[in-house]
Fold each of these.
Amino acid sequence: MIVVVKKKSTDNEVRNLIKWIEAQSVRVDIFDGVHKTVLGLNGDTSHMDIDAVISFDIVDSVKRIQEPYKLANRNFHPGDTVVDINGVLLGGGNFQIIAGPCSVESKEQMSLVASTVKKLGAGLLRGGAFKPRTSPYSFQGLEGEGIKYLLEARAQSDMPIVTELMSMEDIKHFEHVDVIQVGARNMQNFSMLKELGKLNKPVLLKRGLANTLDELLMSAEYIMAGGNKNVILCERGIRTFETATRNTLDISAVPILKRRSHLPVIVDPSHASGMSELVESLSLAAVAAGADGIMVEVHNDPRKALCDGAQSLGFEQFERFMKNVAKLRQIIPGIYES
Amino acid sequence: MIVVVKKKSTDNEVRNLIKWIEAQSVRVDIFDGVHKTVLGLNGDTSHMDIDAVISFDIVDSVKRIQEPYKLANRNFHPGDTVVDINGVLLGGGNFQIIAGPCSVESKEQMSLVASTVKKLGAGLLRGGAFKPRTSPYSFQGLEGEGIKYLLEARAQSDMPIVTELMSMEDIKHFEHVDVIQVGARNMQNFSMLKELGKLNKPVLLKRGLANTLDELLMSAEYIMAGGNKNVILCERGIRTFETATRNTLDISAVPILKRRSHLPVIVDPSHASGMSELVESLSLAAVAAGADGIMVEVHNDPRKALCDGAQSLGFEQFERFMKNVAKLRQIIPGIYES
Amino acid sequence: MIVVVKKKSTDNEVRNLIKWIEAQSVRVDIFDGVHKTVLGLNGDTSHMDIDAVISFDIVDSVKRIQEPYKLANRNFHPGDTVVDINGVLLGGGNFQIIAGPCSVESKEQMSLVASTVKKLGAGLLRGGAFKPRTSPYSFQGLEGEGIKYLLEARAQSDMPIVTELMSMEDIKHFEHVDVIQVGARNMQNFSMLKELGKLNKPVLLKRGLANTLDELLMSAEYIMAGGNKNVILCERGIRTFETATRNTLDISAVPILKRRSHLPVIVDPSHASGMSELVESLSLAAVAAGADGIMVEVHNDPRKALCDGAQSLGFEQFERFMKNVAKLRQIIPGIYES
Amino acid sequence: MIVVVKKKSTDNEVRNLIKWIEAQSVRVDIFDGVHKTVLGLNGDTSHMDIDAVISFDIVDSVKRIQEPYKLANRNFHPGDTVVDINGVLLGGGNFQIIAGPCSVESKEQMSLVASTVKKLGAGLLRGGAFKPRTSPYSFQGLEGEGIKYLLEARAQSDMPIVTELMSMEDIKHFEHVDVIQVGARNMQNFSMLKELGKLNKPVLLKRGLANTLDELLMSAEYIMAGGNKNVILCERGIRTFETATRNTLDISAVPILKRRSHLPVIVDPSHASGMSELVESLSLAAVAAGADGIMVEVHNDPRKALCDGAQSLGFEQFERFMKNVAKLRQIIPGIYES
């Protein structure tokens, strides 16, 4: 961390600031220029509170050199993390398709979707039981009942399941869920992240609609700091001024996250675009950019989906999608390993 | 709601769509144009799920005419809501200053700040005990202990208190808190909003960093739909590309929210700007735009604040601030009532 | 276009509005609902001024059904436009790499870069002679001298050249330039777009930093309305809150633009990311998403580039890049044609 | 400027970098830390190209301490600039209202609007003759004819006029125009800014839709670097995700620009909001925040305006507006001077 001190500061004020910094086990080098004094902080500054430094009256500005995340940081953990989801591996060269409906609607639906997507090559099953809806008057999901249907489909198809948790008060339903999803709107629900850090279960963490990649990594750090190292990062589109798509898929998130972190990175083209017609081309782009997996909405009858039908693939579309993703995967790992 | 149907649709498909809509107690008028069919929905469509309508294959696009919020909507409740906070009134011409430190730091600090801001004219006391911090390594607040100090300052100064709740699991500490604050990052924590709807306690709801005003009103609707009508809306700055300020105060939020809703609207210039030097001019702007109150950070020693010291006013600055706000308040209500 | 009329309007006011609309050769169908009147406009409304309609006191809101662009619209011109750049074809299955330095620096540099990128497979040569720089104190380009070096490299290498025009006052230098580039900051320089519409020379139109895809298509429409149909659309990243990359590549722009328009769509990963390390993975993503070409910065010595060296590929990186793009191109067209 | 050098750099590489920097008349202080080397640059770095510094392979990152603008910078010119517009003063305590229609429509209209707004207290007359329109099919303004009507209204009313220039090719019409307006879309039309720097005529420079305040000041610097010191800065709303208003008025721009620069700062609430009902409350906010003037759209018959009627005040609304602005102005300067 580099701290620039205002030029009018007294020696005494600067000494006090240095004393305060050194009390946090960080060594300070002083650099006296003509117009200003610059302090160089050496040591682990990831635990330092940048706001606290700025709040000193004599501090002009602060520049972080070291990233504020440590456990999620590839610099400290060069090898790829491989998340083992009850036998299904994700990350470090293990690519997975996570498929299923936006909302769990019935036992029969889940059974049908699960067997179909499994047959076509998906590795994990998704489905929403607790649904974050902007309006209190919209369908809120089948909740506990929905989890039950998911678990039945899991037993039948032998695919691990991914489903969203919206509140720790519902955690009782998640005992047999394989991967807990944290939705975009909860990416900075720090209380929940702390609790998830205490579990021994993979967490799929979605990027918030207006959050930076470093903020996403800080949220991963919250979970990891609690002891849970099995975090999967998910780019699902950010809010921009573009109106042609529901959100804007930030494809650069894939190579950036993979450079900065060792955690697996997947892409959700269904929420990113909000349009089923775009799902395939965005998925191919994500594969080409080096993603470790794709999470995609598939519905037995998209026209009748209780939510987000406009972005769901039907079975035929999903079959074509799987074929083309597979074609691309044949050459992509070779490109990135060379 | 206006539903535009694709021109290639069959009569049968259109009939099915209309049947589905009418099943929701909404009357449908059909308008057949040369190039398209338009359906006009009459009745209360606020409970209708716009995504479900779009998911019909034959639907080209949908346009809401009626706002999707009802309880928060001024059209249905023309008179201003006045929130009674244990005797301190907010809204409907009742203007309040809410002042106090970003974080509760100690018993002595809260006592000193409370007596000082009360003497200078503040109506409510604020202070954070549970703190949402981007980094797990930053100071997270005094938590339950902080609430205790707040309640002691409340008893001593006889000012109602406002403090943030980050998780329903902490609600046990909030029994004697007067106003529960929902932070920007929890604006769409729908599970929490639902729970707060069951309480009989005012909720101060902050706008999310990248949320629209209609999304803020939908979140208020969540609380109100549960039965709790005492919601205070708070504009606290949105994320934009500007870097000179921490966030961008959306001053238009004040007149827009007051037009669309009957709920009181306050402004938080401290978080909006992140700079104590801007707090006064932004507050004067907020008063001039018609805000019902200002929530401002005041600290006994801003240089030593444990968080956000850079945006806190010292006591002298706060005294000047109160004098100038009062000067403006002498003429503003007259302008808006004329 | 659908026009929703306020319910309190008088019959006379509605009649006047209809008369005004019909005077623009558009037929109006009236739909009287219980709460409102809706007007359906039939005919070519692309020339109608939506602001003028809204300015009627009795108009509640307006919804466009037809896109406001016509010449750029795929609905009216289903076949792909193929731009013939003095023998080099772009669009309609013809894929091209446009390569060269950010700035033209010297005759020798351009000669070296041109022969190298040609040998490695590039189809067009790029290089900036007139440079848009945020600061008046930054290097502004070699201007006319730079164009001369470009033309010499063109003669030597027999590659068509692409270079940016910043003002019509400089057009005299562009007589022998093959493709005129309009930079992101000039995307809505409508005076310039009109002038370019009168020329008989391809225009490469870059998307503005905060513009929507429909705004980009409207700017293409400006050029085409003047008679010049050879417009190439270029996605070069938009401004978002993300700071890890200079801009955010909107990869969805590729499939969306190709759906909405028949014009060729290329991607500039160098400006989108600002980082040479990201150029290859973003280019692969663009190819996978269906782009018709890539415009990439290549420099003989990126460390010494006079501008934007951080985002330029060196020759070795470019060689690898070309090899991998070619590998992907072997399978991609097959996927999109199937 | 602080330059952070990567730790793996050789002494020779660092020496070369320092030599390159010192060749630009800037002194370099070296600070060797354990993990990195930091260079502190002393002297005038406003002319240094930050991109060129970053392009050195060994540079990790760069942090500006000094603002890159100098002529527009209050640090170097502490006193307020007062722009003398043919006798009407703006800035330094001189507050002005600039009023008139969005578009010049006819001689009679301009005569009527000019005499009315003058009588009600406006200091300058505005009106668009060259209109930037998103669609080539929208009304583009009366152009030269419009300027003629403006000049006639100027002669009749003895008010200086402000009107927009869209291209230097039209400058011949602007000989007798008092203030040249640069629209938001041309804020970074650097070629035009350079030409305007050579004129001896005040320039009203509007902030771009997605530009930062420092970018606005850099554009002012372009004009001033050419010799023209009479620049008026105008905040007119930025693009955000909010849809309730056309743009979002960034009210903080007023105090920030006035801190960073000595140039006058005005606000355009008509374009910022796009709604006539919001113009008064946003103008009061701007006055309260310390603006030097307001530019407001006034039309003799807003319902029939050829563009942007929805945001124009009628004469009665404008009369009320002027009365309330005056009421606020009676107390505001006193607050800011105290």
Note: Chain A has eleven helices and 14 strands.
Amino acid sequence: MKAYCEGMELSNAVMTVIKATSTKTTNPILEGIKLKAEDEYITLTATDGELAIEKKIVADVKLAGEIVVPGKLFSEFVRKLSTEQIQLILDEKNQLRIKYTDSELFIQCQSASEFPSIKQIENAQFFEIKQADLKDIIDRTIFSVATDDTRPVLKGCLLEQDKNTLTSVALDGFRLAIAKKSIKECSAESSIIVPARSLSEMSKLLNEPDETIRVLIERNYMMIVVGGTKIVTRCLGTKEDFINYKQIIPANFASTVTVAKSQLLNALERASILSHVGGDNSVKYVITGNVMQVVAKSEAGMVTENITISNAGEDLNIAFNISFFMDCLRNIASDYVMLKFNGQVNPCFIVPNENSEEYTYLVSPIRQVY
Amino acid sequence: MKAYCEGMELSNAVMTVIKATSTKTTNPILEGIKLKAEDEYITLTATDGELAIEKKIVADVKLAGEIVVPGKLFSEFVRKLSTEQIQLILDEKNQLRIKYTDSELFIQCQSASEFPSIKQIENAQFFEIKQADLKDIIDRTIFSVATDDTRPVLKGCLLEQDKNTLTSVALDGFRLAIAKKSIKECSAESSIIVPARSLSEMSKLLNEPDETIRVLIERNYMMIVVGGTKIVTRCLGTKEDFINYKQIIPANFASTVTVAKSQLLNALERASILSHVGGDNSVKYVITGNVMQVVAKSEAGMVTENITISNAGEDLNIAFNISFFMDCLRNIASDYVMLKFNGQVNPCFIVPNENSEEYTYLVSPIRQVY
């Protein structure tokens, strides 16, 4: 390999693909970035075996070739060369020579033959959606995925799409998040469970809110191309492998509380300080008429906040994990939220007052200790 | 105690004094903040036994009293009340009740009788200096203090002051930093070794560059009052307890290299990436005529950068701890620096080209491994 390129372009491409490298792996090649010089391009690829990110940059290629560079070292170094013109020269001993101004770096690399091949998506079905909408439903559900390995499918979001709507669902057994947005076009209906890490990296690249993005799905793989960057991910199954979340949502509620979101969130933030210091992370709501008392207690003290609400239904006394409840509220944009309860032992449903069909959150109550 | 105050004022005062609380202590009262309501003020005090910070805020005191609140909990809570009017009420069981809007927090507190008394400085000698100048000499030397406990006096900066000049000196056996600035006025000459942590907190409060500050010294204590905040620190001794640093500086040098600071720093930053990955944190300078080659090597590869210099003196081949060298360069503002050498085994002196009498850094060489 012998190629010339601009430091700034190389640096940007490296920063993009490096997010797919693996940091905790027994296979060191997954910590690397594959550079492939061919025709008028250098193609950079990184993968952790599940997620793959690929980006091409323009280069003056004198001699084609490919090699895997150590990801962290290469990215840190290249970031400091963003103003320079760079020459990459590979020798026979897998040493890459990086020349810039009149200085140079040699780095020991690995052969590209060991690097896993990236799934090619060819005869895929697809749907199209506004970038902002895809980013929105990812960001507003991903925090509810399971983080342990007991049920691997719960470590992803279920993306379910019909002719009109894309729905993202995440749940971990204690809470559930559902977000919906309209799609623009599609070739067929689809459902696929996408690992949270892959969705998180995709979301970060969706930086053109008004642009439309095409999401391609082929058997157990999903792919998007955004700003010249190709992202492919292996998936965890389809809706048949997921929990049938629709049956969890009841038709009627015994209490429906409407409350100013920021007031409740501020009260919970103060309560959480106490709840986290020698407490059990819980918060209790005591709903009596049009007042909801937010109570947290720990060995350090006790906080009581009174919030004015409107309540269509029964009075109630119920406790929750305070962090789970705050996570949901933080993902709601509207000024008021509705909290829907069916007594002390059933989950609370949280929906925004505006666009209430777009978001639904559920949090299971916990046993009251005070 | 019963007092009313503004949340914003209380919050700001808590954020200021909390920096003196101890976070790793066997004495829990040092994790607290003492509140004392008296006359028209609440006085907040925190100390770790060495450093003490005290700040008064205006309050409507209905009933005088004092108590020690848990520092972290109180500060986090009060920060979220900055827009409220706050009422503080102490009961007989050392419980502090904090009322805001129609909500309230109870926290369990400790009796103020256990709280250490803060040294009162009365018949002190003093000197006066521009805030910017005091901050400058602290910030440009403090990074060189020793971090281990082998020689406790080296964990502070020696502040030595005569009729005209204040000098700050820090050294850890591998490197030395000296910074000087003119003073405005003084009552006598002084020298005192101030713990690095105390100086660091003082530096952060010196936010009025053009104002003059009075530094008070009484036996083994130093005090400043800045923006209504009183900071008192116990000290580690005087110049008699410190190392006689003046004898380290030779009159003549075998090589005097002048180099563009940012060019050398950029080269070192790139080299350090390699030097930190499986390397030994070293960098080698090969000085031949008017070229200085900066070389770093590790199992990951090798970097060679060529920098044009002017050299009055001998060629040289010498190695350093790369982080120590970068620390010094980062603390120099001028565009060019002079590196002064006396062969391969003696320390390198680094001085700026401009205001060269104000700053001197020294770094000891290390054994060359390549």
Note: The CA atoms of residues 181 and 272 of chain B lie 32 Å apart.
